[in-house]
Amino acid sequence: MPVDGSFGVKGTTFDAPDLGQVRIREDALVVIDAEGSITQALESDDPGYAETEARLRREGSLTVLGEGQYLFPGFIDLHIHAPQWPQSGTALDVPLAEWLNTYTFPLEARYEDQRFARDVYGSLVESLLANGTTTAVYFATTHLPASRILADLCLQRGQRALVGRVAMDSPETCPDFYRDPSARAAIEDTRALIDYVNGLPGNSGLVRPIVTPRFVPSCTDELLGGLGDVVGETGAHVQTHCSESDWAHGYGLERFGRTDTATYDAFGLLTRRTVLAHSNLITLDDMDTIVAAGAAVAHCPLSNAYFANAVFPLRESLDRGLHVGLGTDISGGPATSIRRTMTDAVVASRMREDGVDATVDPSRRGVAGSRVTLAEAFWMATTGGGVALDLPVGLLSPGYAFDAMIIDTKVEDSDLLLWPSLDTGSDVFEKSMHHATRRNVVRVWVQGSEVRSVTGR
């Protein structure tokens, strides 16, 4: 390795600097410094390319991609319920309120058991990294010790993460066996987790705290206001659910006479670093409010199909300038891969555009102009996720963290097959996003550190 600790990766790269445009660079040379940031992303005809490649080879610090291997940015998952990992893929046939009270809250209450928390959280972090998720935004539970364990594990295993201790204190909507005893206790524990995460030895910002009111129905006014004060004092990120379903959206309207978006804004919880999950039922005024705040939406198309009662207006949101990224919403969404979420986002947009009721005339069946492309979904899964979080991640460009993965199209027993006589660079991109699985993700880096490596084909 060179004295300065830098290294390079050479090969064909795919990323998305702009919404809807996939940048393909053959024989690109990405140079990373000792801090894990990209310093150069050179193409073969750029000045200094040959000299830089020769230097890295001489120093033994150049990784050259093999035949059929491609470099992609790591995926960014904006919405994950870490404690729900054990129930992923189950109990998806009931309404949201019943799903929470019958299945989810009892499961989350188990995280008072720290050994259970460690086992589950360790399994989830490993699975997400194996699927190429380099940045994860996590809801934990109300338990402070277990939330600390999740932060510890993310740091130990090298995943970039935002970890939030869930705040929920309303005796009207939260079960007696699983809620904060008071708004004050929830606020104090939120502050305690912020201090803990920021003080983790060796952290340097890889793992960050995130203020996490579960959603409007679960929080008293005192708690929402207190968490808003915490955000104002600390500048921490915020995550919550927003206008997800008819039930949740209607609850906020009845209680406050305004939408969830307006409520979060009133309590100081809508900032440049806020991520609003779902947001299916937001209004045009809500969109304008979100844009003005610089906040973001975590679009979760698969879980929306199960629980949200409506399709998120993705095309309108993007066109109005909202920051939008993607979320798996484990376990409301039974998939660990953002690649699946990308294709779900495309499918949902097409169904919104074309409509779903064949008895309605085609001219009135859908919402015209709603579709998004796979390239746009890829942008949301990478660059757009970084924009949403206000972090320099998701792009293979100078100044960005080297959060990246190699997808190998030649691993054995894979459905990702290429035909060199037929497939263009665009075809390679589309097939990789549609057909790759964790088997194809053979190397993963976060902030320049290799966190996953699979040898052999």
Can you characterise this structure?
- The chain has 457 residues and is of the alpha/beta class.
- The protein folds into 2 domains: 7-73 and 394-453, Urease, subunit C, domain 1; 75-389, Metal-dependent hydrolases (TIM Barrel, Alpha-Beta Barrel).
- 38% of the residues lie in helices and 22% in strands.
- It is built from 16 helices and 17 strands.
- Strands 6, 7, 8, 9, 10, 11, 12, 13 and 14 form a 9-stranded parallel sheet that branches.
- The two termini are 26 Å apart.
Question: Gist?
Answer:
The protein contains 16 helices and 17 strands.
Key attributes of the depicted protein:
single chain; 457 residues; alpha/beta; Urease, subunit C, domain 1; TIM Barrel; 2 domains; 9-stranded parallel beta sheet; 4-stranded mixed beta sheet
Give a short account of the largest sheet.
Answer: 9 strands, parallel
Q: Could you tell me the radius of gyration in angstroms?
A: 22 Å
**Which architecture of the largest domain would the CATH scheme give at its second level?**
Alpha-Beta Barrel
CATH topology of the largest domain: TIM Barrel
Uncertain residue segments: none
Q: Mean of the pLDDT scores?
A: 96
- For the record, the CATH class of the largest domain is Alpha Beta
Helix count from the secondary structure assignment: 16
CATH superfamily caption of the largest domain:
Metal-dependent hydrolases
Count of distinct structural domains: 2
Q: Structural class, please?
A: alpha/beta
Helix content: 25-40%
Global shape? globular
Strand elements, count: 17
Q: State the separation between the terminal residues, measured CA to CA.
A: 26 Å
Fraction of residues in β-strands: 15-25%
